[in-house]
Amino acid sequence: MSARKFQKASIEELVQWYAEGSIAYGQALEAADSRSANRAHDKITGAYRELRSRDARSQLLPLLQSENETVRTNVAAHALEFAPEFGEPVLLWIAKRPGRNGLAAEYALKNWREGTLNYP
Q: What does each C-alpha distance from 36 to 16, 31, 41, 68, 86 come to in angstroms?
């Protein structure tokens, strides 16, 4: 997706694309499909950057209730930048679970606490 497409999108579309990208990212990782994972990651980061530029990142917070663990993990990690009181508890819970999301949550928390977590 082009930067222009993100700029023209509504906030609702950006949130939807973020969620869709997160789901696709998780599926691509499970399938060991790096090209699809990279495309999905680009969709997530593009949507996030545009939401940040509009000061609308809080619109992602309802996704912390998503049934999809990858969506929750991604939103919680991004929330550490603007609403850590919402992101941290979710990551703490996910970090206790086995699998790649648990590991991702653990490292996001570690890097955030060390001040080395970078945001797109």
A: 18, 9, 8, 18, 29
